[in-house]
Every structure is written in C-alpha cells, then in structure tokens.
Amino acid sequence: LGSVTHSQSTKLTVGDEVEEWSVTAKASIAFRSVPYTIVLLQMDDQGNCLRRTEFDPGQAPERLTPEGETLLTLGKDILTRVEATTDIMKDLGGGRKILKLGLPPMIGSLFLTQIYKDFNGQYPDITIEISEGGYQNLKQKLRDGFLDIAFMSHDDTLDAEFSSVFLSRLEVVCCVHKDNPMARLPFVSIKDLENKPLVLFEDSFFQTAKIKELFRREKITPNILLQTSQLSTMYNAIAQDMAVGFVFRPVMERNTDVAAVPLSHKFDVEIGLVYKTNEYSALCVKNFINYKFLI
User: Fold this and answer.
1) At a CB cut-off of 8 Å and minimum separation 6, what does 172 contact?
2) Does 3 score more than 70 pLDDT?
3) For position 50, what pLDDT does the model report?
4) Cβ 244 vs Cβ 174: under 8 Å
5) Exposure of 271 by Cβ count < 10 A (0-12 exposed, 13-18 middle, 19+ buried)?
6) I need a surface site. Which of 62, 137, 232, 282 has the fewest CB within 10 A?
7) Cα–Cα dist 73/80, whole Å
8) Phi, psi angles (nearest 5°) of residue 231
9) Residue 229's CB: how many other CB atoms inside 10 A?
10) CA torsion 250→251→253→255, rounded to 10°?
C-alpha cells in the first residue's frame, strides 16, 4: 500500500492580523492478486462508510457514476474558487505581482517592446507570464481563469461575458515576395488568389476564419499550403516566394523582402485588451489596462 499526500498552506498578514488556511489531498493505492470480489466504498471525512457496492472481477465500472461526475465537477469548481480567492487575498495584502497575459504572435510583434521595456520599466515589480495563441484559444483561457487579460483581434460581436479596451484598428493585407507579379498590383482580389498557394495561421486565429469566409463568398476553395501558429514560419514562406499570406500591415512593412498589397475587399480588424467583465481585477491587471499602449 502506498500513498501520496499534498498540502498547501497560505498565510496572509494585514497589519497585526494574521489569517492562515490550508488544503490537503491524499491518494492511496494498493496492489494485490485478482480478488474474488471487488468492493467499492464511499466514505465520509470521518471514515464512516456511506455506501458499499460489490462487483465480480471484470465487472467493476470503468467510468465514474453520474454522482461521481457531479462530485468531480463540484470539486474542480471549489479548487478554482479557492485559487481565485487566494489570488484576491494576496493582492489585497500586496503580495500578488504576477500578470498572466495572452498574446497572439502578430500582435506580440507590435507590443513586446512596450510590454517589457516601457510597462515593466514603470512597474518593475510585476512579473509578466505570457501565453501565446489564437483568438479561440486565448478566449477559452480567459474564460477558465488561466489568463488575467489578453491582447486580441476581434469584431463587434465579442461575447457579452468579456470587456474590451480599444487600442486600434489594423488593416489585414495580402503579403507576397517583393518580386512576385502581384506585388505590383494596386490591390489583390480573392479571384486573383485562386489556385495560389497560401500560408495561413491556424483556425483558432480570428483573421483566419475571416479570410476563409472571403473565399467562401467567391465560391473559391483556398489552396492552403500550410497553417501555422508562428509568425516566423509565415514570414519565411512568403519571403521565399513559397506562398501568399495575410498579415497586419504594420508587421510586414518592416520587412524589405515582402510586399504588402491591399485587398480589394478592405479588411480591418479591431485590436483590444480583453478581460472578463465581472471578475475581480488585481492591481497589476488594472495598471496594465490603464497603460497607454501605442501602435
């Protein structure tokens, strides 16, 4: 028989008052020969048996019962609320200095200097933990509490549970190698891109869904060479004239090997700082929201 015990204690000191609480979880496992009967016991925290169920070998349930699923869900919810409460108490006591930030690759290329040099220069005691991803991925992490706030591109249909601080509207342009014949066009239509190899971000990225919608409207199937989550991969595919891509204008205008050509159907995306509307915001999050980021 072996067991593992995990304990977590938290102590908060505010002035002369000290509050301390802890959470302990213990798991035990035993190995023995195949029994004649498998007995499952449901126990309370005093060791009393609340329910006893017997099974023949091979007939024990492989999945949780509906009651077990309900208990598991409630347990996860309780742990999430305990962690959130701990964060709030740490913040009230001046102890929380970690900002969990979501950042898509394209937006990251525009804001990283301001985040680490300017914002961190003003608030050097704040540690920023960055999680990269697309729109859907970052939105789910915000919803689940794994992020405090995220830079995101979106339109006017942002879910009601989220709030957004407007930063800018950026144009999405068609990007090709500087020697590609399309680089000399005043604009590029979706029909011009029929059968052209494309490099797109993964489907979880906001602008990818919009680009694919433009192709659907023209009843054209896009010739997707590859999809990636990395801006560097997209840039390399375009710079080597392997594929055509779609990127925010300020991102690719810095690269001399790539030409940024407007789309005939102008495509602008709103950039904002997104966070959950009714959630408690730590001081470090409020400082980030109120900081004046510029493009």
Assistant:
1) 207, 210, 211, 246, 247, 248, 249, 263, 267, 268, 269
2) no
3) 78
4) yes
5) buried
6) 62
7) 11
8) -65, -35
9) 16
10) 160
Beta 197-201 vs 223-228: how paired, if at all?
Answer: parallel
Q: Which helix (H) or strand (E) holds 224?
A: strand 223-228
**Whether 265 contacts 203, CB under 8 Å:** no
Q: Which ranges of the chain would DSSP assign to H, the alpha helix?
A: 66-92, 105-113, 120-122, 135-144, 206-217, 231-239, 249-252, 283-290
Cβ–Cβ < 8 Å for 198, 255: no
CB 38 within 8 A of CB 54: yes
Does the model's pTM come out above 0.85? no
Q: Write the CB contacts of 90 (distance below 8 Å, at least 6 apart in sequence).
A: 12, 96
The rounded distance, in Å, linking the Cα atoms of 153 and 168 is: 10
User: Which phi and psi (to 5°) does residue 266 adopt?
Assistant: -55, 135
List, as one string, the DSSP characters of 34-53. Answer: PPSSEEEEEE-TTS-EEEEE
CA angle 241, 243, 244 (to 5 degrees): 105
Is 20's pLDDT higher than 80? no
The first and second tokens of residue 180, run together, are: 């590609």
Structure confidence at residue 57 as a pLDDT band (50, 70, 90): low
β-pair type (268-276, 149-154): antiparallel
What contacts 250, CB < 8 A, 6 or more positions away? 110, 170, 295
pLDDT at 184: 94
147 token code pair: 């992020």
Q: Residue 224 in contact with residue 245, Cβ under 8 Å?
A: no
Helices (H) and strands (E) in the chain, counts: 8, 13
